[in-house]
């Protein structure tokens, strides 16, 4: 559940960046802040010339890492 929420935050962050959302909106600011908190150093792995592509790639990578880590953790916890 926690992993799904974090991935949803990353997805919203990317959508807000792509659609150029109002950064003065409280909800948008909260999502940005949470995304930057949860990205854990993966926010600048890729540095293409296009900043928009960089956001998509980096936050996509972070979502993938969280999904993989969550899957492995659930698998480990379900072992008897």
Descriptive notes:
With 80 residues, the protein is mostly helical. It has one domain. Helix content is 71%, strand content 0%. The chain has 3 helices and no strands. The chain has helices spanning 2-18, 26-38, 51-77. It starts with a helix and ends with a helix. The mean pLDDT is 93.
List the keywords.
80 residues, mainly alpha, globular
Please compute the radius of gyration using only Cα atoms.
Answer: 14 Å
- Helix/strand order: HHH
Q: Helix count, per DSSP?
A: 3
What count of domains describes the coordinates? Answer: 1
SSE arrangement:
Elements: H1 2-18, H2 26-38, H3 51-77
Question: Can I get a quick summary?
Answer:
The chain has 80 residues and is an all-alpha fold. It has three helices and no strands.
